[in-house]
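Take a specimen:
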Amino acid sequence: MSEKLTVAPPTSLEPAPGGPVSSAAPQPPDLNTPGISATDLHRSFGTVRAVNGVTFDAPQGSITALIGPNGAGKTTLLLILAGLLQPDHGQARILGNDTVADNLKARSLVGWMPDSFGTWDALTCREILTTFGAAYGLDKQKSAWRTHILLDQLYLSEFADSPARVLSRGQKQRLGLARALIHDPQVLLLDEPGSGLDPRSRVDLRDIVRTLAEQGKTILISSHVLSELDEFTDHAVFLSKGRTVRATGAEAESTGRGWRVGALDEAALRSFLASADIPWKDAPGGSGEVIVSLRGVESAAQLVQAAVSAGVGVHTVAPLVGRLEETYLQLDEERR
């Protein structure tokens, strides 16, 4: 990742002209405290139960994917965690701070990026960021410096003094991320942040989010593009009909997944699998490849090693779908 994309905390930035950016470094949070903790959260709108029993923890310094079909309650949950909506029942904590009882403290620790930009289109990008900086209590100098850094890192410098209405959908998404980061929050809530971004910008976003997690920030990200989440998330929370149906580390593969395996000699591959007592079925499409069930990359590596030792020239070993997509499809909750 390029140096330009590193989003450094304000205390590590070069001093702004005329004085220091920060007079004192903030106290680091207790690493044993979850960045986000949700316990039996409920929220209804009339007869509609948008959130109906959500419980999970998101560790600090990690990226947690929030996954579920439309109407699963993801956005309502994010609004509760952002301190913008009170739950009817249950508790949400941001670094140990209750989003209701300690609302201002919890909100000061959160950077919230909704799925649509939603701001004053007549203001310039610079004005929007400095205004939000002031709302979070940053002095003018610090707000201006953070704005300068974020506009540069998110490739918006050329639009700094242009009104937001001239930005494309993808550019507004980048400005929305800058707005969420203006006060250097410890927790980031991102609702469909890749929506409207071109492929290059999606890669940049992924790199930025990964860097922020490496700096110790807690990131909860909602997206329908599971293949992208698969590449950089550490944990996953699956929602259906307003409730948690599974919360897990994204690396866990306790059950087998479907993997596509191909070899130069198709008959030799099938003979090897039969002799090794490994069940298989023909892959669709008449490619000559087969589908086997494996428990992750270590099992795949062992299969390749055994096949090559048996003289089978394996040329393809790949999961049929991503880890998150496989788990999501196995749940099949939204069809019930």
